[in-house]
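**Sequence with structure:**
===
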Amino acid sequence: MKQEILAQLNEPKQLEKLYRTNKVLFKREFSELYPELKDNAIADFWKERLSYESEGINWGTGRELVLVIIASLVAGLIAKLPAIFAINEDFFYPRNIGFIVFPLLTAYFAWKNKLSTPKIAFIVVAILAGLVFINFFPDLKKSDTLILSCIHLLLFLWSILGFAFVGEQGNNEEKRLGFLKYNGDLVVMTTLILIAGGIMTGVTIGLFSLIGFNIEEFYFKNIAILGLAAAPIVGTYLTQTNPQLVGKVSPVIAKLFSPLVAVMLVVYLIAIAYSGKNPYNDREFLLIFNALLIGVMAIIFFSIAETAKSTKNYTGVWVLVLLSVVTIVVNGVALSAIVFRISEWGFTPNRTAVLGGNILILINLLLVTVQLFKVISKKAEINGVGKTIAFYLPVYFIWTIIVTFVFPLIFGFK
């Protein structure tokens, strides 16, 4: 819709018609587009109008609200399947935790974006393939490929969600960046919902205990699990119908944490040299090191998704350059450590997965850093960095397919 808004910006009647066609989508797309149109009088007028109308919480259409309620109940029901059918929880949850929420969120965006039948068919086949594969995986007590498949299946389902989010504009870098921004907004909103839910839980249990009812076991096995399953769905609904709720919080978090994380990484690398610990001989330390790397990568991507809205924020660009360079150093240490371990003890599923993941992340970081340096030298615009990230996202999707479905076959489900 962004392109339609831009095309009709100087046509008041057509713009009003576009707004009335889908008010929620119009508000969301316009709020993301507005930073590029600040000097436009018409855009300023619409900003004031939409801000005024959105001072309260917009609960969307009745139909949409009913769908969200049903989806939340279904998510809670899926989470309760082990209790309902006496399924082993140790078997069910590691393999199926992603299916509690991701398919429902995917269905929500497929419905909102009115995906074509072929794309819906692709989504259904992909989700069913993952569901069947992971649940028919041999139930081995010690299987590295099973753990890898369970972890990467979450990323696979996340990628399918992104496919539904971008809708019919699969090659649109702006929509892909919007997906990253949505993830950041969702984390903020879901965290707030869970905090509020935690407070409500404490108050409820406390009040009932005062009158002699100990409801802890019942509450956590039924109400709490339903709330946990529903939180991302409700959070998604609120971020999509009320982009203003976290629209100002997410950029602040990005600007605040990017420099802090950069400083922390520098200090951490220096501390490693003095601590005597290293990822070359300590397997657990290497795993934590790689988890840190993935977390920092997520912060970089989210920060760029936010910074890409402003072409004049060069301070933020410098911070991202520092963060990217330091993260490349961290990646280099992790990559050299895994290469060392492979040369000493050979290939295993874990080492191969970490090696492949580190190589992909390093390439992505290098591409992003080059673009950031071009922005600083004024040879490119900041949106070019976003396009680089958006272009590279399908590479991760392909890698999740390989690790989830191919690795178990290559390594004999070991």
Observations:
- The mean pLDDT is 85.
- The radius of gyration is 23 Å.
